[in-house]
Design goal:
The chain is built from eleven helices and eleven strands. The chain has about 280 residues and is α/β, with parallel strands linked by helices. The strands form two sheets. Strands 1, 2, 3, 4, 5, 6, 7, 10 and 11 form a nine-stranded mixed sheet that branches. Helix 9 (about 225-245) runs antiparallel to helix 10.
């Protein structure tokens, strides 16, 4: 029977992490381990987590602040499970989540990734197709809605460290397009977790800046004049457009068009977003 390691990265989340931990402890499937990686918290996170450590299945690690991607990778290094699932501190599993994942991966030992839906804003979300990026495969990229075979995750290099946004999206692009991908995935249609999503002007602007930073990392990692370099530069252009930076939008748009076969789409979309943002301001 496969053992699933759940990895929760934490940075100053003392006020919310209990719900995430409780959702693991209260699973109907009892065979699991939980690894909590404290990424340099300065609040009471350690004290909150300590109250759970009498459960031998729960392990706590502390590292100097190095970002969520590095924290997740560190968690995987310390995981003993055959499969790994990530969960963020403000989200939580439904009680049968690990049972459903375990049953699915035990049905075929060749499975490298298992995807599921999730609930957010009272709607079922998650599983979607993007033939341009993933071909025939349906994927979900919110932590908790995918389960990786640990060996496969490590062989493709894990998370790209330094990325603070879209790191799950980039991981999935790399996984599905890797030569190490054996084309064996599993799908669970029902939502197995709740994803908390909140939006306001400050959050939207912060996310766009983090997206720009992260996509620049992905861009510089990709092969020059490739589809992915065009895709990542297009995303940078879109986010600069959303922030109202005209010349940065133009520069990254031209770079994406230069490397893309979808020249019209890559040219027009950032410009339209820039115009829209000049007319309609964030609230």
């Amino acid at each position: 029977m496969s053992l699933i390691s759940v990895i929760i990265p934490c940075y100053n989340r003392a006020n919310v992490i209990s719900k995430a931990i409780d959702s693991v402890v209260n699973q109907t499937e009892g065979k699991w381990e939980l690894i909590i990686v404290d990424d340099g918290s300065t609040d009471d996170s350690k004290q909150v987590i300590s109250s759970y450590l009498m459960d031998s299945r729960i392990h706590y690690f502390y590292q100097d602040n190095n970002g969520v991607s590095a924290a997740r990778n560190f968690g995987v290094l310390n995981a003993t499970g055959n499969y790994i699932i990530f969960l963020d501190t403000d989200d939580y599993f439904y009680p049968k989540a690990l049972e459903k994942y375990t049953d699915k991966i035990n049905s075929n030992k060749e499975i490298q990734i298992c995807f599921s839906n999730y609930l957010s804003e009272e709607k079922i979300k998650g599983l979607k197709k993007n033939e341009e990026l993933f071909g025939e495969y349906t994927v979900s990229n919110i932590p908790g809605s995918f389960c990786f075979k640990k060996e496969f995750f490590q062989k493709i290099g894990g998370y790209t460290e330094g990325a603070s946004h879209s790191e799950n999206w980039e991981l999935m692009i790399r996984a599905i397009n890797s030569s190490l991908f054996n084309k064996t995935v599993a799908i669970i249609e029902e939502p197995l977790m709740y994803y908390y999503q909140w939006k306001d002007k400050t959050k939207v602007i912060k996310n766009k800046n983090n997206k720009i930073k992260s996509y620049k990392i992905f861009f510089h990692k990709s092969k020059k004049k490739s589809f992915l370099s065009a895709y990542y530069s297009h995303q940078i252009a879109i986010n600069y457009a959303g922030l109202g930076f005209f010349w940065r939008t133009i520069n990254w748009t031209f770079l994406s068009v230069k490397n893309s076969n979808s020249k019209f789409k890559y040219l027009v979309k950032p410009i339209l977003i820039y115009i829209k943002r000049k007319i309609i301001k964030y609230k």
